[in-house]
From TrEMBL:
Top-rank taxon, per record: Bacteria
Name of protein: 5-methylcytosine-specific restriction protein B
Gene3D superfamilies linked to this entry: P-loop containing nucleotide triphosphate hydrolases
InterPro entries: AAA+_ATPase, ATPase_dyneun-rel_AAA, Methyl-DNA_Rec/Restrict_Enz, P-loop_NTPase
Pfam families linked to this entry: AAA_5 (PF07728)
Species in which this protein is naturally found: Nocardiopsis metallicus
EC number: 3.1.21.-
PANTHER family: 5-METHYLCYTOSINE-SPECIFIC RESTRICTION ENZYME B (PTHR37291), TYPE IV METHYL-DIRECTED RESTRICTION ENZYME ECOKMCRB SUBUNIT (PTHR37291:SF1)
Every AAA+ ATPase domain range: 485-653
Length: 754
């Protein structure tokens, strides 16, 4: 947000966005030539007509992602049409901040579209430099790109359908431009699913006139809060906002301030957007496919309701205090743990108190797909059909021509269906369900604003991480990208190569546990580690009456999967130290399948017949393996296929320069590095080599400290490796022998300059 007095939202980054958009809209629309490839006349009515026929008039209703569909729809069009499509997608993504879609992903999308034609066309540097973005986007930009792309095609067509003089006038008059854009906003069926794109395009084209606000409700709320400054609001939010901004900016100048007014920052945000403001519409997943062994979903659909069982509880009035519900649960389920009852209470209160008429509800029928409806009543209790169906809310279920199924949704949206809870808040993902069921127009702007169904992208490697690890930035970035693409990564190498330290550092970098508690977890495998420890198993527990019972308890990977599923926009990382010390097929069990097929569901060994489990796509696994016992060679083919393997070897980059870099940064002599290199040369086996971390001690330049490290950490390891070979380890690998081979004397500790 601008804090430098700049006249454009987002300061310098916002200015670059607006200038890039202007170069395309005012340049290409007037000259007819491509902004990316000026030798091509791509902005002509004939070229736009190709996109209208190939994309707008031939919608692809398959479950493929947008780019896959676009590749098919652009098949056979001219190079000019492909380049125009790339430029329009550039305008689509340009204003979005990196937290919505990263610069790297923007580049990939543009490059992929440009590759659909044979000419050598790349994104020009001036446009690449503007892609930082300044606006947070939600579902409207990530799942409704087809509608936005079609809107941009229609808009360009409308501009090019005018005479050159009229076109130049349109592109210099913000209100005439807005009127043209408004006329072509309705999509097929008369909907306005491109409205977020419409609002931001106005800002891109005329940043001094319009606000960088994609949410119409936000515009209206701002006008309502500041209407007194302009003598009351009108029916034109954009003109009102322009007038309000002028008044506020003038007041800033009179008070000696120069910063541009930012309606999302204080002191202005507090007037229209209180801190405790919540969305007015929510989305809910309510399970009914296995209620006491019966599938109630067909009955729900036929009779227009959904229900929550807990038949032992009887009627509970909305607004009942939590303490009273806890008491009722304890009486009805005396053997349940306190934690279990707290979870049950949260589901009951969600159904009775948090759910409201107008909310969207999703349910799954294992045989007949995913169903979406709108809550149409307050909760009520009617036991005429049995207590399993008594606690109800009426629902107006959608009746789409074709019922969507699980695989029709994006990976993160699918993951929400894997929740084991009977009632789950899925507000951040419900828009995609609603769109598939034909209820897209019923999704409110505030739900679109909090949507989180976009792709999880890792943040780029930072200089701080490079400095912390002493590894090259390029290598670290490639490693992070390898984890993102494969989702499972194993770092393997001999002792002392920093595998665990690196794994934890990468996990902290991509998941940021300081800001997202619980997003990183570490577990260490050992020979007695089992499936019951790792996934799910029974644990003994003393009941209230003193007798012993068993509870089904989730292991670390099941707990991490649940956390990741509850926050699909946030990466979660499970670090498994010494992963090869356990019997991997035994520990992972049926999870082998899920590691490869993240979108599938399975039934765990100890779960009920109809209880399913999946690994969400935002859960990543980093394992470490020690090669000193050659156990990596024993890892079965199934495991190798599911993990990416990255070797850390003391004699190969990036580990070979690690110790030297670390010593030089601290002004220490490099003798320790020379000794380690000679030691590993004598060992002669990369899998048995010694890594540098043993010697990354700030006192390693002290001969006594170096000797102690060698005698107590390195030589005992070599004794174990060479046991029974008839080798005198001290004579061959001791410091004296190594220094003799190097022709050097022990280094003395540098004098303290002070």
């Amino acid at each position: 947000m601008a804090a430098d007095g700049s006249g454009v939202h987002g300061g310098a980054a916002g200015t670059r966005c607006a200038e890039a958009a202007g170069a395309i809209l005012r340049g290409s629309a007037v000259t007819g030539r491509s902004a990316f490839a000026p030798e091509l006349e791509s902005w002509t009515p004939e070229v736009v007509g190709e996109l209208v026929r190939g994309f707008v008039e031939q919608p692809d209703t398959s479950s493929d992602d947008f780019l896959t569909k676009l590749r098919k729809q652009l098949r056979g069009v001219s190079a000019e049409a492909v380049v125009l499509a790339a430029e329009l997608l550039y305008l689509n993504m340009l204003p979005l901040a990196g937290s919505t879609i990263g610069i790297g992903r923007k580049r990939e999308i543009i490059a992929e579209v440009l590759s659909l034609q044979d000419r050598d066309v790349e994104l020009p540097e001036r446009f690449d430099a503007a892609m930082e973005g300044v606006v947070l986007g939600g579902m409207a930009f990530l799942n409704l790109r087809w509608a936005q792309f079609a809107f941009l095609i229609r808009l360009v067509g409308a501009l090019l359908d005018t005479e050159p003089r009229e076109r130049e006038a349109l592109l210099s008059d913000p209100w005439a431009f807005r009127e043209t854009a408004r006329k072509v906003m309705p999509d097929r069926g008369g909907g306005e699913r491109a409205r977020a794109q419409y609002h931001l395009l106005l800002w891109l084209a005329f940043p001094e006139t319009f606000e960088a606000i994609a949410n119409l409700d936000h515009k209206r709320q701002i006008v309502a809060a500041f209407a007194d400054l302009i003598g009351g609001g009108s029916a034109d939010e954009d003109r009102d906002l322009a007038a309000i901004r002028a008044e506020l900016q003038q007041a800033e100048l009179q008070q000696g301030g120069g910063a541009r007014v930012d309606f999302y920052a204080e002191p202005w945000a507090g007037r229209w957007r209180p801190a405790d403001t919540e969305v007015t519409q929510r989305g809910w997943l309510v399970r009914g496919a296995n209620v006491g062994g019966a599938n109630l979903v067909p009955e729900w659909l036929e009779r227009g309701f959904c229900s929550l069982s807990y038949r032992e509880l009887g009627e509970i009035a909305p607004g009942t205090p939590h303490e009273e519900i806890d008491r009722l649960l304890a009486e009805a389920y005396p053997d349940a743990t306190a934690n279990s009852n707290i979870q049950q209470r949260s589901q009951i209160t969600a159904f009775l108190d948090r759910m409201s008429p107008g909310d969207l509800v999703v349910t799954v029928d294992p045989d007949h797909g995913v169903h979406v409806g709108t809550v149409s009543s307050d909760p009520y209790y009617d036991a005429a059909d049995g207590r399993d169906r008594a606690r109800r809310r009426d629902v107006a279920w959608a009746r789409p021509t074709s019922t969507p199924h699980r695989h029709d949704f994006s990976e993160k949206t699918q993951n929400t269906l894997g929740s084991a809870r009977t009632v789950s808040d899925i507000t951040r993902y419900v828009a995609e369900f609603a769109e598939a069921a034909g209820l897209g127009e019923q999704v409110t702007e505030d739900v679109l604003a909090v949507d989180a169904t976009g792709e999880v992208r890792f943040r780029p490697v930072t200089e701080e991480l490079v400095h912390r690890l002493h590894f090259p930035k390029k290598w670290l970035q490639e490693t992070v990208e390898l984890l993102q693409n494969k989702k499972q990564l194993i770092l393997f190498g001999p002792p002392g190569t920093g595998k665990t330290h690196l794994a934890r550092a990468i996990a902290d970098h991509v998941a940021d546990p300081a800001a997202n508690p619980g997003a990183v977890s570490l577990v260490q495998f050992h020979p007695s580690y089992s499936y019951e420890d790792f996934v799910q198993g029974f644990r003994p527990r003393q009941k209230r009456d003193g007798t012993m019972g068993f509870d089904l308890v989730d292991g670390p990977i099941a707990r991490m999967a649940d956390r990741a599923r509850q926050n699909p926009s946030q990466p979660h990382v499970l670090v498994i130290d010494e992963i090869n010390r356990a019997n991997l097929p035994k520990v992972f069990g049926e999870l082998y399948f899920l590691l490869e097929y993240r979108q599938e569901e399975i039934t765990l060994q100890y779960a009920g017949e109809d209880e399913t489990f999946s690994l969400p796509g935002n859960l990543f696994v980093i394992g470490t393996m020690n090669t000193v016992d050659r156990s990596v060679a024993l890892v079965d083919a199934a495991m190798r296929r599911r993990f990416a393997f990255l070797r850390l070897s003391p004699d190969q980059p990036p580990v070979d320069e690690l110790l030297k870099s670390w010593l030089r940064e601290r002004g220490l002599p490099v003798e320790a590095d020379l000794l380690l290199r000679e030691l590993n040369r004598l060992i002669g086996d990369p899998d048995q080599a010694i890594g540098p971390s043993y010697l990354m001690n700030p006192d390693v330049a002290d001969p006594a400290v170096l000797e102690r490290i060698w005698q107590t950490e390195i030589l005992p390891l070599l004794e174990d490796q060479h046991y029974g070979r008839g080798i005198e380890v001290e004579e061959v690998f001791g410091l004296a022998a190594l220094r003799s081979a190097l022709g050097s004397a022990p280094a003395s500790r540098p004098e303290n300059p002070e």
